[in-house]
Design goal:
The complex is a heterodimer of chains A (427) and B (429). Chain A is built from 15 helices and 15 strands. Chain A is an alpha+beta fold. Helices cover 42% and strands 22% of the residues of chain B. In chain B, strands 1-2-6-3-5-4 form a six-stranded mixed β-sheet, sandwiched between helices. Chain B has a five-stranded mixed β-sheet with strand order 7-11-8-10-9, sandwiched between helices. The chains are: A alpha+beta (427), B alpha+beta (429). At the A-B interface, helix 2, helix 4, helix 10 and helix 12 of A face helix 2, strand 5, helix 4, helix 9 and strand 9 of B. Chain B: InterPro entries: Metalloenz_LuxS/M16, MPP/UQCRC_Complex, Peptidase_M16_C.
Chain lengths: 427, 429
């Protein structure tokens, strides 16, 4: 395997792309008790329209298929995979995001057995009409649970207001109606197309022997047959840079109204240095203004427009990016107007050297802190690798950012046409 | 492999726990203030932890304080309240990057300790009172936090279950405090309470990360101090009401998914001999996706997305949580009760026992890989006033027999069932 050494953070990664196309990363951390393994496919809820493997026509599958598929991977003809992991002392889980579906385990014992189980269960699908029908009740309850969560509703509501066409506006789990149309054949079509090793990454981090682990993985993969495959042809609709709706209002039983302001950051395909620079500047600038003590936080706080639930987050994926600023507020109209106004004012902003230095220090420290977690490292390494960025080289990139980088970014950051608002009022 | 070596020393009227480990790229300092749970102080403690984060004498508002934290490589200051058994804990935590990973930096650690000292001992105040405008603003924030519980139905149902189940016990108290108690709190009274907390609470300070124990002990001892001896605050144990039949509480709101929660009494606490068996019992019953509840409520009957159990280590309680369709209440309830009977009858295999033990040990070891989790686990011993290290805990769990688990199952009894359901749904009770 190819050994990558990162002296400044005392980390080493082994990397290899196997003959069947699978990308493997091994990160040994002998001081940890635990090993975390994640097997991830570059396939999420936004990959709704594509040309299936061995097919010629473009198809569009029902909303919620990627997530449904994730649920069904755990059930086999004769057993439940959670129990297999349970017997090997591991806790297993899975998640579906906009761009990824990932299967994972954490264990402190039987590591090699658990890695084998992880590879084998994801590469051996079993879907029957009966089990697909049975799952609909469970997923419907999951969807209903989210329907009762105002925070999730404002999150999705803001996305729906921001995007015209892009499938990021679709609920990851689908709707109760859409999941009822899902069939066994839909699952096989998506599985065969997106779960090819060429489209997948395995990342193992923690307490294990690198050589033995590498041998096990190679041997396991060599024993399986996969058809040859080219890149999956996915289609995303043309998405305008402006938002679809300036404002969206929902009603729910809530004790205090909620309001989220969304900034549509990107709808273009980005990779490598361009992606990373935007990713860093976007998150650092939002943090500068809206973190506790930031100038915009201060103003909203002093005007009694926010409380402890105030939050902000930025998100940048390969072809879509957004920033959310929101929380509970007794006056959602004033909150939204005020945040819009504050954001507009950044067109004239200019950072000084001291402010930039503080932003960079904060980002570096928080990144080191996040790296305490094997889960963070494994998930983020894959996330960045998909867009051609190496997580472990981010700190030097942060150090190299200049005052001018920040000023150029912030002065071109905000355009009122790219801002949408979602309000949740009491019924 | 557990990778911890806790060094405890008594100094300046508090206990200092140093836990050197190479697991983390940060160093964290955690101060834990422990006091008996009481209605008189709980709202003050909730408010206090917010006010203390609004500024110090040298950094006189939140912005100044935050800028200092940011310049210390994004040091993270958090404060929170929790309850364990009969006690309330206020935790102050400051975590910062270990300077060894940053070129040309050598003063981060000293400045971090200095800042924590300032936050705890020199908060923004004048004439023995906090600043009135800060207190007023934080009262509003706390009020909204208290009210927002109703928007998180799982938390809300859990809170209501405890209100009913522990109506005569201090464990019912809400950690976030009570809106009606806020008015009586003044900037002066809150400051007076803050001074008495520093004097009277039991204080434990934990330092963890890749640190030199001796150097750290010297630094922390010079920062934290008090005149008095360490207090071991005892609480008079309350007798609980014991009832022949579980009480059933049904409430209705405009919601899509019903929450069905059960409260059991275990009468087993962290220091007890059968605490290990309680761990194994919970693992078999509802702690994992391989447990009885998940398999039967979710997998076999598709009634819920989640169905799980969790126990409280100091008060002796065990809870079951599930989110179900309102119409499925009776069926879900029957299944949960049946599964408890299955446990009481010992209807589980040695293989399930062995697997469950391994999962629990796995979970404990994983907790020790997390800088916050590690401190919480070590601190359990202080809460229970019992020496029982993570190693002892793991060994004890390994030695649990099937009979031990059956005995624990039969010691448990159902106290309260709480259902939060849809307004349109009929429930026969």
């Amino acid at each position: 395997m190819n050994k990558l050494t990162y002296d400044h953070i005392e980390e080493v990664i082994y990397k290899e792309k196997l003959p069947n196309g699978l990308t493997v990363f091994l990160l040994p951390k002998p001081e940890m008790a635990k090993t975390y393994g994640i097997f991830s496919t570059n396939y999420g809820s936004i990959d709704q329209t594509f040309v299936p493997i061995n097919g010629r026509e473009r198809i569009t599958v029902p909303e919620g298929v990627a997530h449904f598929l994730e649920h069904k991977m755990f059930e086999k003809a004769d057993r439940d995979v959670f129990a297999d992991f349970g017997k090997q002392g591991a806790s297993a889980n899975a998640y579906t995001s906009f761009t990824k579906t990932a299967y994972l385990f954490a264990a402190t014992n039987h590591i090699e057995k658990n890695v084998k189980t992880l590879l084998d269960f994801v590469q051996d699908p079993y879907f029957s009409e009966e089990s697909v029908e049975k799952e609909k009740g469970i997923i419907a309850q999951e969807i209903e649970m989210y329907n009762d969560q105002p925070d999730w509703q404002t999150f999705m509501g803001t996305l729906k207001a921001m995007f015209h066409q892009h499938p990021v506006k679709i609920d990851i789990a689908g709707t109760v109606d859409s999941i009822h149309t899902i069939t066994k054949d839909d699952l096989y079509t998506c599985y065969n197309t997106f779960y090819h090793p060429e489209n997948m990454t395995l990342f193992i981090a923690g307490n294990f022997n690198v050589q033995q682990m590498a041998d096990l993985i190679k041997h396991n993969q060599a024993s399986k047959d996969f058809a040859s495959m080219e890149d999956v042809k996915r289609t995303y609709p043309d998405e305008p840079t402006s938002v679809a709706e300036r404002e969206r209002k929902l009603t729910m039983p809530v004790s205090i109204p909620k309001c989220t302001v969304g900034i549509k950051e990107s709808s273009a395909e980005l990779t490598g240095d361009v992606f990373l620079k935007k990713d860093l500047l976007q998150s650092m600038v939002v943090d500068f203004y809206f973190s506790k003590g930031g100038p915009f936080y201060r103003q909203l706080y002093d005007q009694q427009l926010i409380d402890a639930s105030f939050y902000f987050e930025t998100n940048l994926e390969k072809n879509v990016g957004f920033t959310f600023i929101g929380g509970n507020t007794s006056d959602p109209d004033r909150f939204a107007d005020q945040v819009r106004e504050l954001l507009q004012s950044t067109n004239q902003a200019e950072f000084n050297a001291e402010e930039v230095d503080r932003m960079k220090k904060k980002k570096i420290g928080l990144l080191l802190r996040a790296m305490n977690s094997l889960e963070f490292i494994a998930n983020k390494y894959i996330h960045y690798d998909t867009v051609g960025v190496d997580l472990f080289t981010i700190i030097p990139v942060i150090q190299s950012l200049t005052v001018e980088d920040f000023n150029t970014f912030v002065q071109n950051w905000i355009d009122d046409k790219r801002i949408a608002v979602c309000k949740i009022m009491n019924e | 492999m557990i990778g911890t070596n806790e060094n405890i020393m008594e100094a300046n009227g508090f206990y200092l726990h140093t836990v050197p480990t190479k697991k983390f790229k940060t160093i964290s300092i955690t101060a834990k203030f422990k006091a008996p749970l009481s209605r008189e102080t709980i709202t003050q403690r909730a408010l206090l932890q917010q006010v203390l984060q609004q500024g110090t004498q040298s950094f006189p508002d939140r912005s100044a304080l935050q800028m200092k934290l940011d310049s210390l490589y994004g040091a993270v200051l958090t404060m929170d309240s929790s309850k364990k058994g009969d006690y309330h804990m206020m935790t102050v935590r400051l975590e910062t990057a270990n300077q060894k990973f940053i070129s040309d930096e050598s003063a981060i650690m000293d400045e971090t300790i200095e800042l924590l000292k300032e936050v705890v001992y020199n908060p923004l105040s004048e004439n023995n009172a906090f600043i009135p405008s800060v207190v007023a603003r934080e009262k509003d924030t706390l009020k909204q936090k208290i009210n927002a519980v109703t928007d998180d139905k799982m938390r809300f149902a859990n809170m209501r279950l405890l209100d009913e189940m522990c109506s005569d016990e201090r464990y019912r108290l809400h950690v976030q405090g009570y809106e009606e108690d806020l008015e009586a709190i003044t900037p002066e009274s809150l400051y007076a309470y803050y001074r008495s907390m520093l004097r009277e609470d039991q204080l434990d300070v934990y330092v963890s990360g890749d640190v030199d124990v001796n150097a750290m002990e010297t630094k922390i001892k010079s920062a934290f101090m008090r005149d008095e001896e360490q207090n071991s605050v005892a609480v008079i144990t309350e007798s609980m009401k014991k009832q022949d039949h579980p009480q059933v509480i049904i409430e209705k709101q405009n919601i899509q998914q019903a929450k069905l929660h059960f409260g059991y009494r275990t009468n087993i606490a962290f220091g007890d001999d059968d605490y290990f068996a309680l761990h194994v019992f919970n693992g078999l019953f509802g702690g994992f996706p391989s447990s009885k509840l998940f398999i039967n409520v979710r997998e076999k009957n598709s009634l819920a997305y989640y169905a799980a159990s969790r126990f409280e280590s100091h008060k002796g309680l065990l809870f079951v949580f599930s989110g179900i369709a309102p119409k499925d209440y009776q069926q879900a309830r029957d299944i949960i009760e049946q599964q408890m009977d299955v446990m009481k009858n010992g209807d589980f295999t040695e293989e399930e026992m062995a697997n469950t033990k391994e999962l629990i040990i796995n979970q404990l070891l994983e907790t020790m890989d997390n800088s916050k989790g590690m401190i919480e686990l070590l601190y359990q011993q202080v809460v229970a006033d019992t020496e029982r290290s993570p190693e002892t805990l793991i060994e004890g769990i390994q030695n649990v027999s099937k009979d031990d688990v059956i005995q624990v199952a039969n010691k448990l009894y159902l106290d309260t069932i709480y259902l939060l359901t849809n307004e349109g749904t009929d429930t026969d009770e």
